[in-house]
Description:
MetI-like fold; 67% helix
Amino acid sequence: MTNGTFKLRPVLPTISVVGWLKANLFSSWGNSILTLVGAVISVWLAWSVLDWAVLSAVFSGNDGSACRVEGAGACWPFVAHKFQLFMYGRYPVDEIWRVNLTYVLALAGLVPLMLPGVGGKLWLSIYMLVVFPVIAFFLLTGAEWLGLENVATEMWGGLLVTLVVACVGIAASFPIGIILALARRSELPLIKWLAIGFIEFVRGVPLVTVLFFASVMLPLFLPENVTFDKLLRALIGVALFSAAYLAEVVRGGLQAIPRGQFEAADALGLSYPQKMGLIVLPQALKLVIPGIVNSFIALFKDTSLVLIIGVFDLLGIVQQAIASDAKWFSPQTAATGYVFAAFVFWMFCFGMSRYSAWLERRLDTGHKR
Length: 369
């Protein structure tokens, strides 16, 4: 009841399960045939996966002989015995606690930063962008003055390298992409054409070329006594490559903002940084959330290309373990290793996708909270 009057809610029609199936799946002979064929294929695929991964799979064994029996499915003992290698590469066993502590510190700042109901976003952002990178650097690489053994990046591998390349690439490419997008829309010809030239050049070459350039060509332009770590070169190449694509996504959001928003900000006497930071960019970034997350997902998957320059990420270390350890040779070893790597990649990418969809719904002004 509102203001003394009753407000009636519309009565929604109810549809039975049989009615829904008839209306959506069996509305005609053609749809009925497609539904039955699709159901048969789906059941066959589901049964094949279940049989290979569970029913016929091998779950125990000390070498590949356990998986070389006739009719054997997935060779899960291979994953179990190589799990530490897949997660940390050749990072010293006694120092793995430093990697785990880095993960915990990252989650301690990232989770509350991603949850809207948690306060202190400014301090959390400062922690994640300034404090945590310094702590993570000393934890992972080591520092003798802290009593931490130095661990060269050549010893890193597996999921550790995948997360380092992806997280650093995302954190670095996002602000660079925004700057490039704003520079491309600049009224200063020099700044505008420099941004256009960089974006079009990077988007016109594959990531493999950028990685080769960062690994092989970059040292040629540096003084003889100046060298860069191989992983650092990969990080620079991935960040710049992703920034070029992200710049076009952000530029699309900027072009979607009505001209009246710019004029209103100018009428209020706001400076250019205030206009962009308080009025335009928040609206533009909200519009292109799917495109931004799509770029981040593509970046996460592209981390596997660092294998080209000798940096072993998760997929690279799995491939190396399959090819180099004859002890675990079996018809199913390779497939099991690749399926495991694919599942880990899918898990992270699917999580980013779902968070993006939730964030997009929450930021929608018409969304009922």
